[in-house]
Amino acid sequence: MKNTLNVLLSKLRMKQLQLLIALDDHKSLHKAAGVMSMTQSAASKALQELESMLDAPLFERSKSGMIPNQLGHCVIRYARLVATDLTALCQDVAEIRSGRGGRLAVGAIMGAIPECVVPALNQLHAGQPDLSIEVVEDTSARMLAQLDDGRLDLVVGRAAVAADPSKYQYRPLGDEPLSVVVGYCHPPLPRRDMTLRDLTDYRWVMYPSHMPLHALLEREMDLAGLGMPDNPISTASTFVTVALLQRSAELVSLLPSAIAGPFVRHKMLRVVPLRLKSPSQTFGIVTRKGGVLSPPAERFIALLRAQAQTKVPAKNDKTA
């Protein structure tokens, strides 16, 4: 291990890592060489030198082109991390020199955005008005992949969905309670508690099957002794969901309560008096274990944790 590290530190060139990324993207040495403005023989030599440093091949030749093997996938992932970090370094240096002051890329699950992410971002922006901020809203699994690639500084979501949660440091923040909702045009609902069986005549607006809230609704239906709704409308968009519910009294959906709240207050949605049996899902701050956070990321995490401590008793950090 030590010998390999010494060889890489003394001989590895950024051009070789860029070549690996190009090979992964194009599956062809000829195309990758063209992208890199290299001759094919020079590209072949650079790849051979890298494989010699690691003492193992990185690609297999197939009918579909050059396909990375298990070791190749591993090296390419770290090559992308290095390239992303260098890009971020150049951007940060340019912005700091121009007086604009750095950047922060945050991923967040939908339910954490209104009451958790937005207030902390507002505080951060007030203290660092020249900071460039990017917010990505997606599923935890997809955002963890972006975190792995270095495209996100941190994720406000769940680490437990990862294939290997131990890769991450996880600091719990709170819960994501859910509400069953209908459009405001829907006739007034009974004050008594309803059940999912009372909604069997409604058409559901549901999340796509790869999203966690789809699985949660499936579990709730199973606990109620019901099958999944027939002919649902599938969308991952909150805007589409609310627009559909507003236009029809025959539709029902499931939303994080923090997302539903503003629409209820503005008389766009109504909450169905229905208690779900599944416990609220928890979420927290997810970062790469052993990674170095930028000062804006450290500040943002401090704001998130201080904000959470004002709502619930402090919790110890843990790895998940």
Q: Which CATH-level-2 architecture of the largest domain?
A: 3-Layer(aba) Sandwich
CATH class of the largest domain: Alpha Beta
Query: What overall form do the CA principal axes indicate?
Result: elongated
CATH topology-level name of the largest domain: D-Maltodextrin-Binding Protein, domain 2
Task: Say which CATH homologous superfamily of the largest domain is assigned.
Answer: Periplasmic binding protein-like II
Low-confidence stretches: 313-320
Number of strands: 12
**Class derived from helix and strand content:** alpha/beta
Largest beta-sheet characterization: 5 strands, mixed
The number of helical runs is 11
Strand content: 15-25%
The portion of residues assigned to helices is 40-55%
Quickly count the domains: 3
Averaged pLDDT, please?
A: 87
Lateral strand order in the biggest sheet: 4-3-5-12-6
Helix and strand run? HHHHEEHEHEHEEEEHEHEHEEH
**Termini Cα gap:** 27 Å
Radius of gyration, rounded? 24 Å
